[in-house]
Design a protein that fits this description.
The protein is of the alpha/beta class. Helices cover about 30% and strands about 25% of the residues. The protein contains 7 helices and 11 strands. The strands form 2 sheets. The chain has a 9-stranded parallel sheet. Strand 10, helix 7 and strand 11 form a beta-alpha-beta unit. The chain is elongated and about 60 Å long.
Length: about 230
């Protein structure tokens, strides 16, 4: 009986899945393809997966509802012990009111996404412990939010946006300045009280190190966090 299923850029998925016998309980499911492949796979009756890894490629013209429904199937209805999602290319027309990913633990976003979308998305992932962001976009609301945050850090931290995120990664900066990305890092770090590790690209790293060494740790915050 099939226990491990790996699909890489698989064409004609509907026909394939109609002919194949896929057990509802898999040890490992690894999909690197488009959202349409994932949509077809969601109709095969998979119920539990030990390790679930999905990497999405391609700009497909799906409605936010279709995108949400497909991923909700795998990160809400399919139970998994370990799960990750990597999005390489998507327009990110997300309706976060429709997103529900309680089993998602690791999220890698390699395509431009508005910072305000990230803030709305985080509460939809109550098990998330690893978040990696590449390119962020900043609309008026994001700029207002980031520029209005307190300059000085006091003994009390702001209300958390996540009680589960342990690792944060910032891997690039194209649409905003390094100073704006530093504002993002500061905003998110202060609201992830269980953070254990943060990594940043070369120009951002010195600013993040200064944040921890000169602002956070003297106040007794995040003294155990590894910065790299």
């Amino acid at each position: 009986m099939l226990k491990v299923l790996e699909l890489f850029d698989c064409p004609h998925t509907d026909t394939l899945f109609q002919q194949a016998t896929i057990t509802p309980h898999l040890q490992c499911l690894n999909v690197r393809s488009s959202i349409s492949t994932l949509s077809a796979l969601s109709r095969t009756g998979i119920a539990t997966v030990g390790k679930l890894e999905i990497t999405l490629y391609g700009y497909e013209h799906l409605s936010p509802q279709e995108f949400a429904d497909t991923l909700n199937h795998f990160y809400n209805h399919v139970r998994s012990r370990k799960s990750g999602l990597c999005i390489y290319a998507h327009a990110f027309a997300l309706d976060t009111h429709e997103i529900c990913w309680p089993y998602l633990q690791s999220l890698f976003i390699k395509t431009p996404v508005p910072f305000t979308t990230i803030l709305r998305l985080i509460p939809c992932m109550p098990s998330l412990h690893y978040l990696s962001l590449a390119e962020l976009e900043f609309d008026h609301d994001a700029v207002t939010l980031l520029t209005s945050q307190e300059t000085n850090i006091g003994p009390e931290l702001p209300t958390p946006i996540s009680q589960t995120i342990r690792t944060l990664c910032f891997t690039g900066c194209m649409f905003g300045t390094t100073e704006m990305m530093f504002s993002v890092a500061k905003y998110v770090v202060l609201r992830c009280p269980l953070l254990e590790k943060i990594s940043a690209y070369d120009k951002l790293l010195p600013l993040v190190c200064r944040l921890f060494d000169h602002e956070l740790k003297p106040q007794g915050h995040f003294t155990h966090v590894k910065v790299c």
